[in-house]
Specification:
The complex is a heterodimer of chains A (76) and B (319). With 76 residues, chain A is an alpha+beta fold. In chain A, 25% of the residues lie in helices and 24% in strands. Chain A is built from 1 helix and 3 strands, in the order βββα. Chain B has helices at residues 2-47, 88-101, 117-120, 123-129, 145-156, 219-229, 251-257, 277-285, 293-296; strands spanning 57-61, 70-73, 79-82, 106-111, 131-137, 161-163, 169-172, 175-181, 188-189, 192-193, 201-206, 209-213, 237-239, 261-264, 289-292, 298-304, 307-313. Chain B is globular, with a radius of gyration of 27 Å. The chains are: A alpha+beta (76), B alpha/beta (319).
Chain lengths: 76, 319
């Protein structure tokens, strides 16, 4: 994807607009891109599903919900 | 003599000059005092912007860009906040100044519609800035980190938690907050409870006027509400579900709620295209008055003596 734009969003954070070959856009925080990334550079994105972290987070939040509500149903 | 006469004249000139300078100096001081007083008067006016009429309640759909935050303030000053936008920055720039300008120092209820970032993102900052009486939460399973952080703060601060479920009634002075949704048997998608479809749905009622705030409830949840509540679902003002997305605001739901006014909370040029044209068409077809935070800024419903007025307040933040 090409770094098409770098600008500040309404929260004041720098974000990059990445555009793929079909013109589809993805807006990502600039600090997620490699250091030194600049306009018109081509970057590659790679996503993977982190099942272990997903389960850990889900379980952690479920425990917090249980502590808060100590009740039946989906919180158990 | 010549020198002496010249010295005397110079002395007189100096004396006159000093007097004139003193007068000018005093005039400047007086002018500064007047200007300072005027400036203070303006500041005081700004700090108390949008004063509530005596006996009035207000429901404010705040302009928090793409996201949602709805404040409810009762005539006795008690207050609730439903959702907090997507970030702490939105809380600092929009929500906190607005609540303080209306004299809100504490929130009786901090209500979460559902744990998506554009609704839960500002919650930790709200909990840092305001004393909260009770945390109200549908407790939908999620992996959202900000939601987890929020729950940790709620636990650390020992804030009582209320599980948001159909039939729960909350009171803000004379203002009633009735929770119409979700139920224990949550709507699912892909075998898991769906975050949007199990949004906390709040009906605010005061002085015979009602406002419905359905979070990101989508058409499946809307259909169940229509079936369960029927004509009892009718309200004066509806906050459009899911920022005016075509996943929500079905024709059947609009017919059942039959609002005169719909308020859409959406960010300018948001990447989702909210509000969607189909929804705007459905609203226009029914002759419903439309307000949008991306166009109008913060939208207030001011309720008093059995009637309401809509007021818009353009946000000061850069769009």
């Amino acid at each position: 994807m090409t770094i098409d734009e770098i600008q500040r969003n309404r929260d004041g954070d720098l974000v990059a607009t990445l555009v793929d070959d079909d013109g589809r856009e993805a807006i990502v925080p600039l600090d997620l891109l490699p250091e030194g990334a600049r306009l018109n550079q081509v970057v590659s994105l790679e996503f993977s599903i982190d099942e272990s972290s997903t389960e850990q987070r889900r379980a952690h939040i479920q425990r917090l919900q249980q502590r808060l509500f100590q009740r039946r149903g989906e919180c158990e | 003599m010549f020198v002496g006469r010249n010295s005397s004249a110079r002395y007189t000139c100096l004396l006159v000059g000093a007097v004139v300078a003193a007068i000018l100096f005093l005039a400047c001081i007086i002018l500064l005092i007047v200007l300072f007083s005027a400036s203070n008067a303006v500041d005081e006016e700004e700090a108390t912007a949008t004063p509530l009429p005596e006996g009035a309640a207000i429901v404010s759909v705040l302009d928090v860009d793409q996201g949602q935050a709805v404040a409810i303030i009762a005539p006795d000053g008690s207050a609730a906040l439903i959702d907090a936008g997507r970030s702490g920055t939105r809380v600092e720039n929009e929500i906190e100044p607005y609540l303080r300008s209306l004299g809100v120092e504490e929130l009786d209820y901090l209500i979460l519609s559902h744990p998506d970032q554009d609704h839960v993102g500002g919650m930790p900052r709200v909990l840092e800035l305001f004393t909260v009486g009770a945390w109200v939460d549908p407790a939908i399973p999620t992996t959202n980190q900000t939601y987890g952080e929020t729950l940790e703060i709620v636990l650390d601060q020992g804030i009582p938690a209320i599980l948001a479920r159909q039939g729960e009634q909350l009171k803000l002075g004379e203002v009633e907050l009735e929770l119409l949704w979700p139920v224990d048997d949550m709507l699912t998608s892909g075998g898991e409870p769906d975050s949007n479809e199990n949004s906390t749905v709040v009906r605010v009622t005061y002085a015979g006027v009602s406002v419905l705030i359905p979070g990101d409830l989508e058409q499946n949840g809307e259909a169940v509400l229509v079936e369960e509540y029927g004509a009892d679902l009718q309200v004066d003002v509806l906050v459009a579900g899911h920022h005016g997305s075509n996943t929500s605001s079905s024709g059947a739901f609009l017919d059942a709620t039959a609002p005169d006014v719909v308020i859409i909370s959406a960010g300018e040029n948001n990447p989702y295209g909210h509000p969607h044209d189909e929804v705007l068409q459905r609203l226009r077809f029914r002759g419903i008055e439309i307000y949008r935070t991306d166009i109008d800024g913060t939208v207030n419903v001011i309720i008093e003596d059995g009637h309401y007025e809509i007021e818009t307040v353009e946000t000061s933040a850069e769009r």
